[in-house]
Design goal:
The chain is of the alpha/beta class. The chain has a single domain (about 5-265), classed as Spore Coat Polysaccharide Biosynthesis Protein SpsA, Chain A. It has helices spanning about 20-30, 50-55, 70-80, 100-110, 140-145, 160-165, 180-185, 210-215, 220-230, 235-265; strands at about 10-15, 35-45, 65, 85-90, 95, 115-125, 130-135, 160, 190-205. Strands 1, 2, 3, 4, 5, 6, 7, 8 and 9 form a nine-stranded mixed beta sheet that branches. Strand 1, helix 1 (about 20-30) and strand 2 (about 35-45) form a beta-alpha-beta unit. Helix 1 (about 20-30) runs parallel beside helix 2 and helix 9 (about 220-230) runs antiparallel to helix 10 (about 235-265). The relative contact order is 0.14.
Length: about 270
């Protein structure tokens, strides 16, 4: 099979003032062994040297822009609006792919034409790229997503472009749960599948990252999806929301402690 017979994979990186991590993200995409990648970077008008880094790799990019936008969700929608691939993914500008991730995802989707989205395991890494933990990925589906059993590391997901065109774009009113909203819509139309034992990406935890800075906004947005789709107050998702509301400060404290411990070891 020639390279041209393989599906084109469109990867979008939304970015804003992430110069300390952006080049590592870019290289993790461009150094993949998969031969047909269309890479798009949408920068929100950074003023920290990010544009210089993007220009350094511009000859290898399908398209890039640096202009003021309405945030991450808007940037991702803008990128996919330019995408021509049969498989879509986005990788945030502080995260990275592991070698072989794209090839593995495409292989699975080609061998399982009924599956709409595939994802795998993901490491937590610190600001220097050291592995400091593992994302709790697990198999989920439409029913379990509606109950709040997410377990999808966004950094590892690859989905069919046809589903994006059917149910997209991302809802720009969401700051945090736009990926959850998309997964619910995809899973309502096609199976999604988790591949245990394959690590495809690294999720960077740092002090100004959204996971640390705004985690309290995620579950209220998930509730918006729940009620929008006819969910009841007397549901697993609502119960999990109130339980999580109680324990979230502890989880965030543990994440910050994990970062502090890695800093002390340097």
């Amino acid at each position: 099979m020639s390279d041209h017979d393989l599906p084109l994979v469109s990867i979008v990186t939304p970015s804003f003032n992430q110069a300390p991590y952006l080049e590592e993200t870019i290289r993790s995409v461009l150094e993949q062994d998969y031969p047909r990648i269309e890479y798009i970077i949408v920068d929100g008008g950074s003023a920290d040297g990010s544009v210089g880094l993007i220009k350094k790799y511009a000859p290898k990019l399908a398209w890039w822009v640096s202009e003021v936008d309405k945030g991450q969700t808007d940037a991702i929608n803008k990128g996919f609006g330019r995408a021509r691939g049969q498989v879509f993914a986005w990788l945030n500008s502080d995260d990275t792919y592991e070698p072989g991730a794209v090839s593995a995802a495409v292989k699975y989707l080609r061998e399982h034409p009924d599956v709409g989205m595939v994802y795998a395991d993901c490491n937590f890494i610190d600001e220097q790229g050291n592995v400091i933990g593992k994302f709790g990925a697990a198999q989920t589906d439409f029913k379990r997503l509606r109950q709040g059993y997410v377990h999808i590391p966004q950094q590892t997901m690859f989905f069919r472009a046809g589903l994006w065109h059917a149910v997209g774009p991302l809802d720009p009113s969401f700051y945090f749960a736009m990926d959850y909203d998309l997964w619910v819509r995809i899973a309502a139309r096609a199976p999604i599948h988790y591949l245990p034992g394959q690590t495809w990406a690294n999720f960077r935890i740092h002090k100004v990252g959204k996971t640390i800075a705004a985690d309290d906004r995620c579950w209220p947005e998930m509730l918006r999806v729940h009620y929008r789709d006819g969910g009841s107050f007397f549901s697993v998702l609502v119960a999990k929301y109130y339980i999580r509301k109680l324990v979230a400060p502890l989880w965030n404290w543990r994440r910050r402690k994990m970062l502090l411990s890695t800093e002390k070891e340097k």
